[in-house]
Amino acid sequence: MIEEAARLIARSRFLIAFTGAGISAESGIPTFRGKNGLWENYRIEEVATPQAFSRNPELVWDFYRMRMRKMMEAKPNRAHFALAELERMGLLKAVITQNIDDLHREAGNTVVELHGNIYRVKCSSCSYRENLKESGRLEEFIEEKALPRCPECGALLRPDVVWFGEPLPESEWRRAVSLAKKADVCLVIGTSAQVFPAAYIPMIVKDEGGRLVEVNPENTGITHLADVVLRGSAGDVMERLLEKVKSCLAEKC
Questions:
Q1: How does DSSP assign 176-199, residue by residue?
Q2: Are residues 93 and 108 part of one domain?
Q3: Which of 24, 25, 42, 165 has its Cβ near the most Cβ atoms within 10 Å?
Q4: Are residues 48 and 65 in the same domain?
């Protein structure tokens, strides 16, 4: 199956990737489900909804500062670097991700972030936004105890991520759909494909006549649509797949 996937990728004219939390597990970032999952000690409605922020912004910011601290320590893993190499080779056009950890960008990929970015904040009232990594304020921000306020209007700042019950950012969604409609092959890596509307992306690829290659340890919501299914961890599978793609290109398979 890995050879079949390599042939599809090597012969593709417009390859994209769609990724979820599973691709970052090897980097030490907890997934949402299962033992030690992200929500094991928290209730979603208490920390990841607009209503939760209105009700208890201190708890929400405690949760997100904890997540920032954990994600700061994480580094891109073999799967991230394999995708970055596929892009450098001219095969992969973009990564559409549900992840907010910034690891794809750090590895070197062109990224569409459907659910936002953990290192960005935005004003809950005006249009102010800040990337804490780029401004050099990340560590200082994480250690602050007070609720963060907008430097322009004084309203509370909030994480620039998509919470449950919120729509996806329109510009990112339009870009993702456009890429999906162009794609003839889509790598679907480390996602349960159960969070919508993001999970429509591989379905759009399939509806437009594209092929799906799924990389996941277990069955997901799109396994039945996949043309090739590769079982195993994202790091192991992507490392092997990259080498097979290179061999396929060299041998003109």
A1: HHHHHHH-SEEEEES--S-STTTT
A2: yes
A3: 24
A4: yes
The domain containing residue 178 runs over which residues? 1-28+76-115+168-253
Q: What is the dihedral of CA 233, 189, 119, 129, to 10 degrees?
A: 180
Is residue 5 within 8 Å of residue 213, measured between CB atoms?
A: yes
Q: Helix H segments across the chain?
A: 2-11, 44-47, 50-55, 57-73, 78-88, 103-107, 132-135, 138-143, 170-182, 200-207, 234-251
| CA nearest neighbour of 162 among 62, 38, 49 | 49
Residue linked to tokens 């910011």:
61
Domain boundary among 93, 128, 161: 161
Going from the first residue of the chain to its last (253 residues), give the mean pLDDT of each consecutive group of 10, the final group possibly shorter. Answer: 97 98 93 55 84 96 94 96 98 98 98 98 98 96 96 98 96 98 98 95 98 97 97 98 97 85
From the candidates 80, 104, 115, 224, which is the catalytic residue?
A: 115
115 is catalytic: yes
H helices, E strands: number in the chain: 11, 9
Edge-first strand order for the sheet with 185-189 is 111-113, 92-97, 15-19, 185-189, 211-215, 228-230
